[in-house]
What we know:
- The protein is α+β, with helices and mostly antiparallel strands.
- The protein is built from 10 helices and 9 strands.
- Helices cover 40% and strands 18% of the residues.
- β3 (146-156) and β4 (159-160) form a beta hairpin.
Amino acid sequence: xxxxxxxxxxxxxxxxxxxxxxxxxxxxxxxxxxxxxxxxxxxxxxxxxxxxxxxxxxxxxxxxxxxxxxxxxxxxxxxxxxxxxxxxxxxxxxxxxxxxxxxxxxxxxxxxxxxxxxxxxxxxxxxxxxxxxxxxxxxxxxxxxxxxxxxxxxxxxxxxxxxxxxxxxxxxxxxxxxxxxxxxxxxxxxxxxxxxxxxxxxxxxxxxxxxxxxxxxxxxxxxxxxxxxxxxxxxxxxxxxxxxxxxxxxxxxxxxxxxxxxxxxxxxxxxxxxxxxxx
Length: 279
């Protein structure tokens, strides 16, 4: 709930008190007395009146007919992140968004023969979203939820670098990236409660410093590269390798925050819901 909404609730509460107080005075004077509901008259009542005055403070203490905050909590749509990546989850939490469930998709991420980096990222993000949607459709509690999937691809020219799981793969990636420019693409795919698909592709350009053999061997020894596209994690030690970056930093980490939050908000998800408790 945003600040304007919170302020609106406060103003509505004060108007409600004034209306209730006016009604209390009318109840006292409707009996024909010319009193205006002073403190003494409210305490003692009027002889012969058919309508008793309301107790002091009853309008202030009585619960409102409806609470916008409670209504928003009850009406918040479910949200599923189609990923098991702690980095993507951490980025969403940074934006004040907490998924109701994680549904990592078991998708073969091997690029097709001759497939370009952009096309590969878009295809895999859509495949992950499709797989998560099938899982959510079988869950009564999550059916109709927003689903966000993403895939990150690191490329040098048209060459797609692997998600390094072996030392040799990581070493080859680092030697290829040393002293050169490369591009990081992240495709995001959002499934709406009506099962419509919305996709975006974000690109960030990165240049690494020239890496010495000592740099490469020491970084390999850190183990930070395991499971990372391109064989490095920019949010860790490899951040010191970056000479220049053009575009979204969170895109390199694995989830472009601005584009993801904008896409969710544009489809009606209450992106500010968790901000009130962020501190």
